[in-house]
Amino acid sequence: MLKPLQWENGRGVRALCTANLVLAALATLTPIAHVLEMPNKLALDAPLWLAVQQHLYRGWGPFVGAPILILALATTLALLVARRHGLTPLRLTLMAAIAYAGMIATFFVLNDPVNAALDTWTPSSIPPYWSSSRLQWEAGHALAAILSCVALMALFRAWLLMRERPSPAGA
User: Fold this and answer.
1) Is the Cβ–Cβ distance between 136 and 115 less than 8 Å?
2) Of 66, 68, 117, 170, which has the fewest beta carbons less than 10 angstroms from its beta carbon?
């Protein structure tokens, strides 16, 4: 009988690590893209910024960003179990899991309230505090970018450490 996370002499764990690193890289792309866009978006006037927010980003969160982030967190949590015997890889994987949880919390605290407000705005009803909402939204994505980079670096370092270990017999 195959043991969970150790099937085929560790091949399952290697596949999980590979999937996790791919998801970690993908989870980093969207927040980094927002950071790269930030200087130009901060220069937009209110009606143009609102148009960009309401049209350009529609569907990205629920259909692209969120599923990738959730899968990155799920595979990271699975790796926590697989790496329970290696202290340093375990700590690095835990750091990544905390970073992903932080990204989710950041979204709900900083970005989601702005997204909900933007759904009710029109070019003629933009409130006077719109620039503080813009700054909150951009800050949320900047923080998510930092956290996603921390997670990716931690997972990559843990992967390197695990590669240096001798593989199981017969692998």
Assistant:
1) no
2) 170
**64 lies in some domain:** yes
> Phi and psi dihedrals of 8, rounded to 5?
50, 50
| Contact (Cβ atoms closer than 8 angstroms) between residue 30 and residue 60 | yes
Instruction: Report pLDDT for 168.
Output: 52
Check residue 1 and give its pLDDT: 44
Distance, CA of 113 to CA of 62 (rounded, Å): 15
80/31 Cα distance (integer angstroms): 24
Distance separating the N- and C-terminal Cα atoms of the chain = 17
Interaxial angle between packed helices 7-42 and 87-106, expressed in degrees from 0 to 180 and rounded to the nearest 10? 40
Q: 112 is in which domain, residue-wise?
A: 44-164
Q: Pick from 112, 96, 105, 28: which is nearest to 68 by CA?
A: 28
Q: Is the pTM of this model over 0.85?
A: yes
Residue 162 or 49, more confident: 49
Residue 168 CA, chain-centre distance (Å), reads: 32
Number of compact structural domains in the chain? 1
Q: Cα(103)–Cα(74) distance, rounded to whole angstroms? A: 14
Cα(63)–Cα(58) distance, integer angstroms: 9
Contact 58, 119 (CB under 8 A): no
